[in-house]
Design a protein that fits this description.
This protein is an alpha/beta fold. It has two domains: 162 residues, Molybdenum Cofactor Biosythetic Enzyme, Chain A (3-Layer(aba) Sandwich); 76 residues, Alpha-Beta Plaits. The protein is 36% helix and 25% strand. Strand 10 and strand 11 form a beta hairpin. The longest helix has 17 residues. The chain starts with 6 loop residues before the first strand and ends in a 14-residue tail after the last strand.
Length: 265
């Protein structure tokens, strides 16, 4: 087992539209998978409104608790896009207007037959000390300030910014996975899974029940951890438990195991 300390991250989703249900977040899964590939573990996700004090307080709390913070939303041209001002307040710095970004946004705006205005210039204004993250999709960049990465809420734009952010991220051990599925009810295997989890505290074991018509109960079990040998040992033990209970376990891709909307009663 490696003694390397886990590198952790928190994602802050900012926007009234998410909390109201008007917009469905599509960024969490992309960022979490991308971070795992870099050896960074997503430990927490928060969804907060476009309220200045809430954003500032959340940023300060989270940046002290995690190695990396990622935010999405609130860096556009409208009055409720206040994330950058909040980041500046959280870090106790002023704001500056980046001339290269002004030139880029002006060219893009004029190419579309539109006029540059103060609202659009908001997207060229950043907290002092920021390192800009290029965005080839819509030109307006995201940015990094210390351990905080600030990105757009629009998925395609966020993804472009995240690709730029990767060069600024130093990860640890990548989380590995093992998966299996069995034709048993979740309640049948629960006790055995708990015993294995108690023996292997450095891995995470999750079970995801499915109810299939004309087939009956099926459970996907996913094991995740940084040590392949430990995962393999726990995986073998769980396979044997399932067989002893009369099941027929099969290997399954841990990234594709899906939870049923209706768990076993």
């Amino acid at each position: 087992m490696s003694d390397t300390k886990a590198v952790t991250a928190c994602l802050i989703l900012i926007g009234n539209e998410i909390l109201s249900g008007r917009t469905q977040d599509k960024n969490l899964a992309f960022i979490a998978k991308g971070l795992n590939d870099l050896g960074v573990q997503m430990h927490e996700v928060r969804v907060i409104p476009d309220i200045r004090k809430t954003i500032v307080d959340t940023l300060n709390e989270c940046r002290a608790a995690f190695d990396y913070i990622f935010t999405t939303g609130g860096i556009g041209p409208t009055h409720d896009d206040i994330t950058s001002e909040c980041v500046a307040e959280a870090f106790g710095v002023g704001m500056y207007r980046d001339p290269d970004t002004v030139d880029l946004l002006t060219r893009r705006t004029e190419e579309r037959g539109q006029t540059m205005n103060e609202a659009r210039l908001r997207m060229a204004t950043f907290p002092e000390g920021s390192v800009l993250l290029k965005n080839e999709i819509s030109a307006a960049p995201g940015y990094r300030i210390e351990n905080v990465f600030v990105m757009a809420g629009v998925p395609r734009i966020m993804q472009a910014m995240f690709e730029e952010a990767k060069a600024h991220i130093t990860g640890g051990n990548r989380m590995l996975g093992r998966g299996l599925a069995v034709d048993l009810g979740e309640g049948t295997i629960a006790e055995g899974l708990a015993l294995v989890q108690a023996r292997y505290r450095d891995i995470d074991i999750g079970s995801y029940p499915q109810m299939r018509q004309q087939v009956g109960f099926r459970v996907s079990v996913v094991l995740r951890g940084p040590d392949a040998d430990v995962l393999d040992r726990a995986h073998i033990e769980i396979m044997q438990i399932m067989r002893d209970l009369g099941g027929n376990p099969v290997e399954e891709d841990p990234d594709k195991a899906q939870a049923s909307a209706e768990p076993e009663n």
